[in-house]
Amino acid sequence: MDAFLSSTLAVAIAEIGDKTQLLTLFLAARFTQRNAIILGILVATLLNHALSAWFGAWLVQWIPENWAPWIIGLSFIAVGLWVLIPDKDDDDETGVLQYGAFIATCILFFIAEMGDKTQVATVILAARYDNLFWVIMGTTVGMMLANVPVAYAGNWLMQKIPLDLARWSACILFVGLGVLSIVAI
């Protein structure tokens, strides 16, 4: 259950102000089918994070056992510092919008997650914890906790959440997970 809670909290906080949250805001402004957007986010996140978690679990098998806590811990700390850098809204891939809310969300969300902080965090969390299922569920729930409210109340919500506070909270969480990974040696 540690894997689920850590994964949920880490991704939910890291996602605030992230480019995928900005993408959710864009999609909610473009399409009226909020449930299709949310389902698209869920499908894209499950696929992306399952692949990421599998990669993290595979990768940790090739790292010498005494190096793993250091690599994982320093990776958490690096992601924590990376979270402090605000994301910019990338150019919109308007070509896929013609396929409707669900397909457009699936495609754009999957692409936006490639190399994103939350994808890297998923790789690290899967390397840290032995239970892929709970890491995938946790990161997916964290992603949904951060994006579902934006799909429904986007502009209003984004004005109410202090992004600097969210970034610093995520930084502290990731650095804390990193230190705990190293100390647990």
TrEMBL record:
Location in the cell reads: Membrane
Give the GO cellular component terms, alphabetically.
membrane
Tell me which InterPro entries the record gives.
Answer: GDT1-like
Q: Family per UniProt?
A: Belongs to the GDT1 family.
Q: Where are the transmembrane segments?
A: 38-60, 67-84, 96-112, 132-153, 165-184
* Pfam annotation, one family: GDT1
Q: What Gene Ontology molecular function terms does this protein carry?
A: metal ion transmembrane transporter activity
User: What is the recorded membrane topology of this protein?
Assistant: Multi-pass membrane protein
* Organism of origin: Marinobacterium marinum
Keywords from UniProt, A to Z, are: Membrane, Transmembrane, Transmembrane helix
Taxon lineage: Bacteria, Pseudomonadati, Pseudomonadota, Gammaproteobacteria, Oceanospirillales
Name of the protein this chain belongs to: GDT1 family protein
| Top-level division of the source organism's lineage | Bacteria
Q: Does the keyword Membrane apply?
A: yes
Q: Which PANTHER family match?
A: TRANSMEMBRANE PROTEIN 165, TRANSMEMBRANE PROTEIN HTP-1 RELATED
Stretch forming the signal peptide: none
